[in-house]
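Final report, closing paragraph on structural work. Over the funding period we assembled a curated collection of sequence-structure pairs, and we close with a single example.
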Amino acid sequence: MIGTRFLFASARGGTRAPGGTRRARGALLLLIAGLLAGSAAPAQAQKNPDDNLQKLAQTGMKFLSVSVDPRMAALGDAVTALEGEVTSLFYNPAGMATQTRALSVTAAQVGWIADISYNNVGLAFRPFGGRLGVVGLTLTAVDYGEIKATVRADNEQGFERLPNIKPTALALGVGYARSLTDRFAVGGHVKWVQQDLGRSAMQRTATGFTLQDNAVSVLAFDFGMRYRTGFRSLTFAIAARNFAEEVVYEEESFQLPLALRIGMAMNLIDLTSADPSVHALVLSVDAETPRDYDEQIKIGGEYTFMQTVSLRAGYVFPTDQQGVNLGLGVQQDLGGLFFGVDYAYTDFGVFNESASLYGVSGVHRVAVRLSL
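Its predicted structure, as stored:
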């Protein structure tokens, strides 16, 4: 399956850590050890010099791998260790534990390649002042457009037209995150995932063809954790996305795009004498091991001025076509109502002309955030 290397480091002060912090460190180390043990043997098998097979096209429901949030996408998805609100459920559910407001709502749209459109909504609420953690709800809907359908026929044209196919995909999720100590947080996300490939012609009848539905659904699970080391804002995190059983279309089965991530993030302003209420410069780095392609390194940077305007950039390597990611965010507190707008652009090489949002080429993402 998957092989990867994890690196974990923690900063220890001169005093002994409280019992809760020691338990949190122990839990984190145990989880990392389990992931290493579970992936070590398959990793050795995959790296056998006699095995020339590559990890390509091994998964389905790939819409679950597309980054739906503009801020996260602009950072190259190097966001495993970042704080967040409901959007963290799509990357590392533990990040939602840092939500400080009672309610947050986000709505986003992605103009993906081949004119595929992603629409995303998320809501998170923090009951009882956060004493019971944070609960989130998510919805992702994918519109693939219409596909012309034909079937071979013995006529002058050589085919007959069938009703157009309209494939769709949907993911409904509920998540939970909680800070177990002032440094350690955990979170999980359960998703009901469905993909409908439309109706296909099976057998000719006197009046036409019998049509068969091609829709499958499955439950998928995400989980993650974050650990603040205590050295300034340095944070480490790990996350796993899209655990699920195999899905079967007729006779062929496939797995969901499982991915394991480890990341770190820090506000570099902590290392300077600059006023942190005026400037923030977050650097984040992720290492990801997906099920169906080679390991990737993701790097992102975000500069925020006066907690109002944010400039973002990110890069992922190695990739075939995806290039630089750029983004902009504006946020403002309007008397207790926090409002924000985010935008991201991703260069996708030869796919730029086939990707658009509102008629503009390239992969674009926009989102609106509200919280109170």
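DSSP finds two helices and 20 strands in the chain. The domain at 19-371 is CATH 2.40.160.40 (Porin). We thank the funder for supporting this effort.
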